[in-house]
């Protein structure tokens, strides 16, 4: 469990386990992008070993943001006795809509983002939006970056929801409230649509054999950028800068109209996401594109918007 989550929710979680007569041990972890490494994974493995876990009947439960889910996932899913069942409990908006879905886990290595990892799905993911009420506003924006990715690529209705309710969702931290009819249950609808569109993209291609992935939108330049300027940009912020850049590319090559481009960039701004960073130099962009080329079968395979909620590969 992430240390901040432990401080906020540890006593509730303990009570829950005790009521259900669960034999458990909570291991608290400093999970940040800087600590997301094999050292952290080895530390988790040592503790799991000391606990004497029976992998046939006792799952490991990861409770925290994306860094916690990814690191525990790698330790449990693939390394401890080759495979140990694990459950994801995402506690940030970004991990709720993105790291909760799919099979991937991984840690940073040699200053490269998620360079070591595997594709091993959890046995379950438990979604509880109430955790999100304690995350800072900037972290809500961070998660909105990944929701916006799915909206621009696949779902015009989701994009319009973000245009209309984005500020409200930021203000209310994705908690469902009664009495504000004009917003309906925007938190529930938005997160459902985001996860559903994410599942539609990931499920048929869990092992990423097909390299043409729309979910890579925002993930071409951002890995390079995020690691270079660490810790100044959060994951979803770096993703958004990449998306903003690619939106301009799309417009320049005639795939989207000026109005569509402006609506996309305006929506990013309304969600309080950065659209540029001084570390995003031409040199960095070229390096990131060269990496992409190398790992994508000799093609760039850029997912680019072709409208609001539609996309193609270029
Ligand atoms: N495996 C995947 O498919 C996948 C998908 C998307 C992102 N990721 C990874 O997820 C990571 C980013 O995840 P993140 O944005 O959740 O960041 P994070 O895990 O670093 O968490 C951010 C901060 O939020 C705090 N926190 C967590 N839950 C909280 C709560 N309920 N209340 C208050 N504070 C809380 C944590 O202590 C931490 O400091 C990146 O490393 C990215 O690579 C993985």
Automatic annotation (TrEMBL):
Keyword terms, alphabetized: Lyase, Metal-binding, NAD, Nucleotide-binding
Source superkingdom: Eukaryota
Cofactor: NAD(+)
Pfam assignment, any one: DHQS_C
Alphabetical list of CDD domains matching this protein: EEVS
Occurrences of domain 3-dehydroquinate synthase N-terminal (ranges): 27-141
Domain 3-dehydroquinate synthase C-terminal, first and last residues per copy: 143-287
Protein name (record): 3-dehydroquinate synthase domain-containing protein
């Amino acid at each position: 469990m992430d240390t901040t989550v432990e401080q906020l929710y540890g006593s509730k979680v303990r009570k829950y386990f005790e009521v259900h007569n669960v034999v458990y041990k909570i291991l608290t972890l400093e999970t940040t992008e800087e600590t997301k490494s094999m050292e952290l994974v080895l530390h988790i493995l040592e503790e799991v070993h000391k606990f004497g876990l029976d992998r046939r009947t006792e799952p490991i439960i990861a409770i925290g943001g994306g860094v916690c889910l990814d690191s525990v996932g790698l330790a449990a899913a693939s390394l401890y006795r080759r495979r140990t069942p694990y459950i994801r409990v995402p506690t940030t908006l970004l991990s709720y809509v993105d790291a909760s879905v799919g099979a991937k886990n991984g840690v940073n290595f040699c200053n490269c983002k998620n360079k070591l990892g595997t594709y091993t799905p959890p046995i379950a993911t438990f979604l509880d939006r109430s955790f999100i009420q304690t995350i800072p506003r900037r972290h809500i924006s961070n998660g909105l970056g990944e929701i916006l990715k799915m909206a621009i690529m696949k779902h015009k209705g989701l994009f319009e929801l973000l245009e209309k309710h984005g500020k409200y969702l930021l203000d209310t931290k994705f908690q469902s409230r009664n009495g504000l009819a004009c917003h309906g249950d925007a938190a529930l609808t938005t997160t459902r649509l985001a996860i559903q569109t994410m599942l539609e993209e990931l499920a048929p291609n869990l092992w990423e054999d097909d390299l043409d992935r729309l979910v890579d939108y925002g993930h071409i330049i951002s890995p390079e950028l995020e690691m270079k300027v660490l810790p100044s940009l959060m994951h979803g912020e770096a993703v958004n800068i990449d998306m903003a850049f690619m939106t301009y590319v799309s417009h320049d090559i005639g795939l989207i109209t000026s109005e569509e481009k402006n609506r996309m960039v305006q929506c990013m701004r309304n969600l309080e996401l950065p659209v540029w960073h001084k570390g995003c130099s031409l040199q960095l962009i070229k390096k990131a594109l060269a990496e992409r080329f190398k790992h994508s079968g000799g093609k760039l395979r850029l997912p680019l918007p072709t409208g609001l909620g539609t996309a193609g590969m270029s």
